[in-house]
Amino acid sequence: MQSAHNVAPEAAVADVLATVPRLMAVTAVTAISFALFDGANRTIAREKRATADAREIASGYRGDCSLMAVLRLVLLLDRDPKMVSFQRVHRHLKRPEVVAVLAKKKAGAQVAARDFLAVHKRIDWEVHGRLAHFRNTGVAHLTPHEIKRRITYRELRKFVLLATRMAECLAPLASDMPPFYPDQIAEYSERSAAVWRTAFRAEHKARLKRIAK
Fold first, then answer.
1. Are 160 and 30 in contact (CB under 8 A)?
2. For 40, which of 3, 62, 126, 208 could close a Cys bridge (C-beta 3.0–4.6 Å)?
3. Full pLDDT tens readout for the chain, 213 residues
4. CA quadruple 40, 45, 49, 52: dihedral, nearest 10
C-alpha cells in the first residue's frame, strides 16, 4: 500500500471525497446507537416500578446498543491505511498541498480541513487503546484472554461526540449529505427513553391487572 505522503495530491483529494460520505453515514449510526443505549440506560435507572422481566429485556437492548457503538467507533478510528476511517482522511488533510487542491474543488474545504484537524487533536489515544482492547478481546472476538481494560460511560460519550464533531467538520466535502449534529444525540436519547418509559409503565399496569384478577 502506497504511503499517504507518496500519494499525489489529486489522488489524495479523490480518496478524501470518496471516503467522507461513508464516514458520515457510519458516524451517524454510531451516534444513534449510543443515544439509544443512553436513553434505555437512563430509563432503567429511573423507572423503579419496572418489573424484572421488563428490565431484563431493556438491559439486553441497552447492552447491544452500547456494543454496536463500541464496534463502530473502533472502525471509524482504524489506523489500517487500507480501511475507510478518520485516520485515512487525517493522513491526507494534514498535507497542505492536498488541502490546496481540495480547495479548488470544494468551497469551504480549507476551513473544513482546519476544523477537522483541530478536533482530531483532541482524541485521547490512551482511552482509544482501552476501547480497542475491549472491542478486540470481548466484542469482535471471543479470545481466551481476560478483558483487562474497559472504558467508562463518560469516556464512551466523549468519543462519540468527537467522532460526530469530526464528521460535522467534513460535511462541506460531501455533496447533498447533511451531517448528524451532536445535539441530535440528546434528541434520539430522549426518544429512546420515552419508548422505554411507555413500555415499562404499560407492562406495570398489565401486571397489576393480572394480580387483581
1. yes
2. 62
3. 455 567 899 999 999 999 999 999 999 999 999 999 999 999 998 988 888 888 899 999 998 998 899 889 988 998 888 999 999 999 999 999 999 999 999 999 999 999 999 999 999 888 877 877 666 665 544 444 454 556 788 988 999 999 999 999 999 999 888 899 989 999 999 999 999 999 998 888 887 777 776
4. 70
